[in-house]
Amino acid sequence: MTEATGGIDFEDEGSGIVKKFMFVNRKAPYGTIYALEGLEVVLISAAFDQDVSLVFLDDGVYQIVKGQHTKAIDVKNFSPTYRALEGYDIEKLYVLKESLEERGLTVDDLLVDVQVLDAAGMAKLMAEQDVVLSF
Amino acid sequence: MKFGILVNEGLYQHQASDTAYQFAKAAIEKGHEVPRVFFYHDGVYNSSRLTEPPQDDRHIVNRWQKLAKEHNIDLVVCVAAALRRGIKDENLAEGFRISGLGQLVEVGIQADRLVVFGD
């Protein structure tokens, strides 16, 4: 316990605590920075050996739509990073069924493999988490 | 209980930072601990020492500093988000420190609850 770290012992990566971390992606990939900076947290979390899941709902489902082209808005197309998540052992990806349907999308439009859950299934999964970070 | 806090919005434009502060203060008054507040996205602006609100308004930066000093709270600003927005050591308010996103994941592991403020 030290002054600088506010009373938490932060030198314990070997403590073996594994929590269920859920990252909820709710916003379109471009237009705001939430999706990009959210993805950065996901990538960092992989280094901590936690039980990580990603959820895409509302306009967040657009983050993983295939065939993104961003040249005309001069913004980096970061969608290929979602395909790399598997390499970080992040394999639990969930999409809200209602959000897909409202936008006329199906799993065939997505660039990664996901599990589709309805609202009740999503609520149940969220209730099981230790940490829910929403971006 | 130990509460980690994540602030994702800038100060004054959005109420998230105010609400996070009120939450932290209330939690401490109730006997809980707030070991760390992490600032991400535009939340990094909460740490600018150049902030000068009108005198009849609350001073959000000073308010965080005071709370942190009194209750030993670690105020951490994400380095990547900060550099992207022009926050660096030379204009960082006293009591804040710039570090990595690992500090956010860590407090998520260590705290009993991680509470997120922002859109």
TrEMBL record, chain A:
It comes from the Bacteria. Belongs to the DsrF/TusC family. This is Sulfurtransferase complex subunit TusC.
From TrEMBL, chain B:
It comes from the Bacteria. It holds the Pfam family DsrE. InterPro entries: DsrEFH-like (IPR027396), Sulphur_relay_DsrE/F-like (IPR003787), Sulphur_relay_TusD/DsrE (IPR017463). SUPFAM superfamilies: DsrEFH-like. The keyword Cytoplasm applies. It is found in: Cytoplasm. The keyword Nucleus does not apply. Keywords: Cytoplasm, Transferase. NCBIfam families: PRK00207.1, sulf_tusD_dsrE. Belongs to the DsrE/TusD family. This is Sulfurtransferase complex subunit TusD.
